[in-house]
């Protein structure tokens, strides 16, 4: 185990470690992002309604969200660096198998298996991104998150191109990126392990836990996730319902996620300067009106609005991860798992319920329900503490 020393933000984030972690994040979120774009191909094959379509996303989010806190707790107790390559590999293999399945039940099973890989990677990846930050927590988690954003954006594009060109059975090739990235993470395992802090120093170098603030934050993340998964699941279907092609729907979804990657790059450093809570409040206030414009106005204005909604919604995933880690500083893995997994998974459950609303009423009403969720979340951000004391945290010199 490497020795820990106090370092300042000026010493800089370890680029090599963050590149490896960001690449791994790209791999798991590539698998996660491909699933919603593939729903438009699964619909005619299995004769699915909106609720059954949303159940595919529910299977992914529940498997991921329920396992992330478990993997986070394992990471905090014993360390689990092996979860990084294993998680990426499992996510890719599950995705490649899902598109080849002959039945709806088998499809759901493979999607759930892929999501377990996603759940295994996230807490450990976010924890080591913080270890490699050397004090610049929001910026470091943003770099880590950009990989995931890029993966989410590439997933719909590449999955659509592969399936349109080779058919659903050709989608087995979608497993290859995850397997290749898993190999790269195995190669970097020793370097990443050098950032593991000395547990004897941890109690003296972190601030107090804030369980009430964490609980409130998780509610806000869940409400934001209603919007995120509502858009992720229904933007392609909404475009098709309004006369656009399936390729157009996948392209708009990808642009939304690319905007999220750009938003992450911009928002992380801003959060380091003005505070993560302030950034979260501003973006939550903006999200609802942007979604409303997309649904009610449509056209070019609607497309621009939903892309902007992607920037502020996806772009703050790293912000809330940083806040969760600061509210539970002695259990970074668990905090990451709760923020990135469990509470986000509640958004996946909400997407399933939105599918039921779409079947019972229409898709427009279901999408507008996400606006109400974001407005409630925006109000709750006023209950988060502002002006946190700066935490002194041990950084590791590899």
Mean pLDDT: 82
The SS-based structural class is mainly alpha
Q: Please summarize the sheet with the most strands.
A: 2 strands, antiparallel
In total, the number of domains comes to: 1
What portion of the residues fall into strands of 2 or more residues? under 5%
CATH superfamily: MFS general substrate transporter like domains
- Spatial strand order of the main sheet: 1-2
Along the chain, the helix and strand elements come as EHHHHHHHHHHHHHHHE
Percent of residues in helical segments? over 70%
Describe the model.
The chain has a single domain, classed as Growth Hormone, Chain: A (Up-down Bundle). 78% of the residues lie in helices and 2% in strands. The chain contains 15 helices and two strands. The protein has a two-stranded antiparallel sheet. Helix 9 packs antiparallel against helix 12. The longest helix has 32 residues, at 15-46. The termini are close together. Mean pLDDT is 82; it is low at 1-11 and 388-398.
Summarize the structure in short.
By secondary structure, the chain is mainly α. It is 78% helix and 2% strand. A two-stranded antiparallel sheet has the order 1-2.
Strand and helix layout:
Blueprint: E1 4-6, H1 15-46, H2 50-78, H3 83-98, H4 104-131, H5 137-166, H6 176-187, H7 189-193, H8 202-205, H9 211-241, H10 246-274, H11 276-297, H12 299-314, H13 317-327, H14 332-360, H15 363-380, E2 394-396
Antiparallel strand pairs: 1-2
